[in-house]
Amino acid sequence: MSSSAAVPAPPTVDERRKRRTALIGGSLGNLVEWYDWFVYASFAIYFADSFFPGDNPTTQLMNTAGIFAVGFLMRPVGGWILGRAADRHGRKSALTLTVTMMSVAALLIAVAPTYGQAGYFGALVLLLARLLQGMSIGGEYAASATYLTEVSARNRRGLGSSFQYVSMTCGQLLGLGILITLQHTLTTAQLESWGWRIPFLLGALFAVVVFWLRRRLQETDAFKEEPSQGDARDDDSARGSLKALWEHRRQAGLVMALTLGGTVAYYTYTTYLTKYLVGSAGMEKTTATLVSFTALALFAVLQPFAGMLSDRIGRRPLLITFAVGCTVGTYPIMTALGSVSSYWSALGLSLLALVIVTGYTSINAAVKAELFPTRVRALGVALPYAVANALFGGTAEYVALWFKSSGRESMFFWYVSGCALVSLVTYVLMPDTRNAALSRAEAEADAEAAAAAADGRDRPAAAPVS
Predict the structure, then answer these.
(1) Residues 6+ positions from 163 with CB-CB distance below 8 Å
(2) Cβ 290 vs Cβ 180: under 8 Å
(3) DSSP state of 226
(4) Is the distance from CB of 68 to CB of 62 less than 8 angstroms?
(5) 157 contacts 315 by C-beta, under 8 angstroms
(6) Which residues are CB-contacts of 54 (< 8 A; sequence separation ≥ 6)?
(7) Which pTM does this prediction carry?
(8) How far is CA 317 from the centre of its chain?
(9) Minimal CA–CA distance to 88: which of 218, 219, 229?
(10) Number of other CB atoms surrounding residue 139 within 10 Å
(11) How does pLDDT run along the chain (466 residues), one tens digit per residue?
């Protein structure tokens, strides 16, 4: 990693067009992937009792949240398998494979039989589909983070990588938008009976379209410049391997630690927010959904601006701001949200929380990608990130509901703050990654710039003209 970066040459019109096309194509695919992933959480309030009988709504939600969390257990598996595939066969091929898996999973959920039709077999289908989704999304995060970062201009990687969370959030917004539409066109009984299947059918169809788009994406220059299989210049068998990742275990540890606080905060203020407003603040489902939709729309708009800011001042200032705000602000924000009585007060508090979270979400893809060399970059991002998500992100909603069911809901707020505090220590101690060279071409440019600077320092000053 270079301490200073060479000034990049201005891109040509053709280069700008290709980068723009790659960013759009990569982002649209990411949008559909995360739509399928998040729509499960958005519609859980309507299909929970279809698979788990009983009279306690919290218990039913805990069961569906448990399956939501189980999906995260497959993310490390998907991160390992698909991260290795991305490092060995290209980012494009991995991105195409992930969306295929997600389409199949969405279709399985759409046709899963209810408890009344097949007993707990329906819940088993739900579980299997969620495991497949977890595997898919485990590879998707790393492949898209790596792809969006590598196709961006060096001095705009923060901006380029910010579109990962723009597309993630837009995927969630698409799901919430469909939910709001169905809430206003179907009765609650219809939604609970069959209406909840509609978004999963749409997700399967969206994924087919994205498969076609991703087949036409260009591969990144950073990957293409790596030696081909059998090239004597490099040990290709180590590319994307656990052995190669072990050589960068410190960076892998950094990815886990810097992910911890961010993923818990993100899932708290996105997927769990609607349930919290309904279950704890007593809001109507439609009002709580509208709060989440509006807050997330504004949150998506913030991402590129924060990404651009990181390209100017570095990544660490934004990460530290997030961690401090989350550590100190979670308890008062969540406590206030638990007693809101109006749409506007809930929206204001939700926005405050998401502005804080933006310090992490807008740049985390770039930071993680900038920690690793090309031959192990996708796996290096995928596996430690997926492990951190399996342990903390995927269980955030379940932990929150468990504290609620035990009558100690406020303990969850301290839990979120504690996770952010661990990441804060990491951010303070880690180096800034903004000037990292992601390709051999960038490394060579840095070396030339350093040599030129050294040559200028060593050359004696010209004699004054008398």
Answers:
(1) 23, 26, 27, 30, 148, 303, 304, 307
(2) yes
(3) S
(4) no
(5) no
(6) 60
(7) 0.82
(8) 20
(9) 229
(10) 30
(11) 444 555 555 666 666 777 777 777 778 878 888 888 778 877 877 877 777 766 666 666 667 767 766 777 788 888 899 999 899 888 888 888 888 888 888 899 899 888 778 777 888 888 888 888 888 888 888 888 888 888 888 889 999 989 989 998 898 889 878 988 998 899 988 988 889 899 999 998 988 888 887 887 888 888 888 765 444 445 556 777 888 899 999 999 999 999 999 999 999 998 888 889 998 998 998 899 889 889 999 999 999 999 999 999 999 999 999 999 999 999 999 999 999 989 999 999 999 999 999 999 999 999 999 999 988 999 999 999 989 988 898 788 889 989 988 889 999 999 999 999 999 999 999 999 998 888 777 877 778 878 877 776 665 554 444 3
CA-based end-to-end distance of the chain: 45
Cα 15 to the chain's mean position, in Å?
A: 27
Residues in Cβ contact with 401 at an 8 Å cutoff, skipping those fewer than 6 apart: 58, 61, 62, 65, 275
Q: Are 153 and 11 in contact (CB under 8 A)?
A: yes
Residue type at position 258: L
CB 277 within 8 A of CB 132: no
What amino acid is encoded at 324 in this protein?
V
DSSP state of 391: I
Kindly write down the DSSP assignment for every residue of 365-387, as one continuous string: HHHHHTTS-GGGHHHHHHHHHHH
Which DSSP symbol is given to 12? P
**Cβ pair 268, 321 in contact under 8 A:** no
Q: 363, 158 in Cβ contact below 8 A?
A: yes
Q: How many CA atoms lie within 13 A of 284 on its CB side?
A: 8
Q: Is the dihedral of CA 87, 89, 94, 97 positive or negative?
A: negative
